[in-house]
Design a protein that fits this description.
Helix content of chain A: 25-40%
Strand order of the largest sheet of chain A: 7-8-9-3-10-11
Shape of chain B: globular
Number of strands of chain B: 0
Number of strands of chain A: 11
Helix content of chain B: over 70%
CATH topology of chain A: Rossmann fold
Number of helices of chain A: 7
Largest sheet of chain B: none
Oligomer: heterodimer
CATH topology of one domain in chain B: MetI-like fold
Shape of chain A: globular
Order of helices and strands of chain B: HHHHHHHHHHH
Radius of gyration of chain A: 17 Å
CATH class of one domain in chain B: Mainly Alpha
CATH architecture of one domain in chain B: Orthogonal Bundle
Chain lengths: ~210, ~240
């Protein structure tokens, strides 16, 4: 489903991976600084590798030899970050709706109400991001990414800034998304415990190299 | 004793002329200043530090220097002004439009600085998040970057407006001191101090300038607070 080959050299860091992800849900696991977020950046189009290839569901998003490099906004990859990254000047409903603007009706996989119900954020719609708790922010961020009807959903340490109690509140939602929604998903985390609750398929990244 | 607040029609005309020049000045530079501010805040390119220095030059030069350069470039016999006059019939030297250009040149760096600072404080991660949802970078600029830079935009507008209202050196050099055409508040105050019995009208114009400046600062403060509330700053 997803094929990534990438080489990237930086003064104190080197990434060299060649991965083929066949499961719908894959976790990428490794300590901080191992290169897992860099790998996510390469797939999403945020970071340009020195050389390599990124193919998602048969569509080539990056190929250094063929000079293909689709910009972020054309890759249709939903991202959920550790810090949520909700737009502070928009309320929850507007944050969610922002994603809908760029999806033609024919390609829309979810409707607004469905996502709101699924993630139990109906009571938050009129609130501003600064009024939300960390866990609520992450649910909204997840909803927003899903509403963009992505071909691939990537979550980068979505629970890392939450305490254990909140983590346990969000995990069921992540599990629900992983199990029931038909979108390929890459889940990045430094916590093996967390990953084991989401999926058994994982790739271990260490010092910029992958070990399955 | 003196009627300090009884403004004459001539003084009101001076005020209106100054306001006209300042408003046109702000309108003229808003878009280019925003574009330059964005370039300096977000892009790296060849010649960036040169552009940065050129933009800031009017801030560190004696204002008479940019005024004189404008005269050489845009005066009726100037390098560019010659053609403006010949082909378009536009004459900037010694007209209020020239006063707009002179104050625009002086106000430009102030506006660029405020907007640049505001843009550089917008979290790049939010822009990336918006792009990942499918928004074209231009759309991201208008829907994310710009609204989140609003308080800096307001500061920039007020600073540029005030700078234009107070412009003296470049204006008098480029467009002279012509009543009802280029004699803005500072030029009028200066003129009154040069004639006998001019102290009282000069003082009235000084009061007017102070009131106007205070008003501008208070409006900007209110607008900035409102803009900050909009994005949830000042709450946490």
């Amino acid at each position: 489903m997803i094929e990534v080959q990438a080489r990237l050299e930086r003064p104190n860091f080197e990434l060299d991976v060649s991965l083929q992800l066949d499961h719908r849900v894959t976790a990428i696991f490794g300590p901080s600084g191992s290169g897992k977020s860099t790998l996510l950046g390469i797939i999403a189009g945020i970071i340009k590798p020195d050389s390599g290839r990124v193919v998602v569901n048969g569509e080539c998003l990056f190929d250094s030899r063929k000079h293909i490099n689709k910009p972020i906004h054309e890759r249709r990859i939903g991202l959920v970050f550790q810090d949520g990254r909700l737009f502070p000047h928009l309320n929850v409903a507007q944050n969610l709706a922002y994603a809908l603007d760029f999806v033609p009706a024919s390609r829309q996989q979810f409707n607004f109400e469905h996502i709101v119900q699924l993630l139990e954020i109906g009571t938050l719609l009129q609130q501003r991001p600064h009024q939300l708790s960390g866990g609520e922010k992450q649910r909204v961020a997840l909803g927003r990414a899903l509403l963009s009807s992505p071909r691939l959903l990537m979550l980068d340490e979505p629970l890392a800034s939450l305490d254990d109690r909140l983590k346990n509140q969000i995990l069921p939602f992540l599990k629900l998304i992983a199990d029931e929604i038909n979108i390929p998903m890459i889940y990045i985390s430094h916590s093996k415990k967390e990953i084991m609750q989401i999926t058994g398929n994982f790739i271990h990244i260490l010092n910029g190299k992958a070990k399955s | 004793m003196f009627d300090l607040f009884h403004f004459t029609t001539a003084e009101i005309a001076i005020l209106l002329l100054s306001l006209k020049v300042a408003l046109f000045c702000v309108a003229l530079i808003l878009i280019p200043a925003t574009a330059v501010a964005w370039l300096l805040a977000r892009k790296s390119f060849f010649g960036k530090s040169l552009l940065d220095s050129l933009v800031h030059l009017p801030l560190v030069l004696p204002p008479v220097v940019p005024g004189f350069l404008l005269l050489l470039l845009l005066g009726n016999q100037g390098l560019i002004g010659k053609y403006l006059h010949e082909y378009f019939g536009i004459s900037l030297a010694f007209t209020w439009m020239g006063a707009v250009v002179a104050s625009a040149m002086m106000a430009f760096p102030l506006m660029v600085r405020s907007i640049r600072l505001a843009i550089s404080q917008v979290d790049l991660g939010l822009e990336i998040a918006a792009q990942s949802l499918g928004a074209h970078p231009l759309r991201v600029f208008f829907t994310i970057t710009l609204p989140l830079s609003m308080s800096g935009m307001i500061t920039g507008l007020i600073l540029a407006f005030s700078r234009s209202m107070g412009e003296f050196g470049a204006t008098i050099t480029f467009v002279g001191n012509i009543e009802n055409e280029t004699r803005t508040l500072p030029l009028a105050i200066y003129s009154y101090t040069q004639v006998p019995d001019g102290d009282l009208p000069a003082l009235r114009l000084v009061i007017l300038s102070v009131l106007l400046a205070l008003g501008a600062l208070m409006v900007s403060d209110r607008l900035e607070r409102k803009a900050n509330r909009q994005i949830g700053r000042g709450h946490d």
